[in-house]
Amino acid sequence: MPSISDRMRKRFILMASDPELHAAVMAATPEGWGMTEATDLDGLGDWQEVLLHRFMLLNLDDPGIVEPIELIDTLRQEYQLNIAIFCLGGSQEQRDAARSARADRFFDRDAGLQRLPEFFALFGW
């Protein structure tokens, strides 16, 4: 069972296998924030572990992420979590499917990286 201090830690999820994206996100991550990186939900643990994160960055263009739409659907339908999911990249078809699965926002890769400071500020409570 997570402690109160575990629940208060500032952390987010990066769903990506791209080392360049990882480096760019790490460079933008403020001190005091932790990043959990995975390419599938099994890499994150049980739903209680996912719940300890403030938001998720999901790279829709990453071939290392199997079924990103199914991943979103599992978070929303099976786990019933409302963690913010920000999608990077993806075709219009992928974005439409992710929107239907209830992902929150969509950005081109560069625009999403530019918005990271805003995300950290919004979820820095």
Written account of the structure:
This is Response regulatory domain-containing protein. With 125 residues, the chain is of the alpha/beta class. The chain has one domain: Rossmann fold (3-Layer(aba) Sandwich). The chain has a five-stranded parallel beta sheet, with helices on both faces. The mean pLDDT is 94.
Please count the beta strands (DSSP E, at least 2 residues each).
Answer: 5
Query: How confident overall, as mean pLDDT?
Result: 94
Q: Kindly provide the radius of gyration, computed on alpha-carbon positions and rounded to a whole number of angstroms.
A: 14 Å
The N- to C-terminal Cα distance equals 22 Å
Number of helices: 6
At CATH level 2, the architecture is 3-Layer(aba) Sandwich
CATH class descriptor name: Alpha Beta
Protein name: Response regulatory domain-containing protein
Organism: Acidithiobacillus ferrivorans
Can you give me a brief rundown of this structure?
The chain has 125 residues and is α/β, with parallel strands linked by helices.
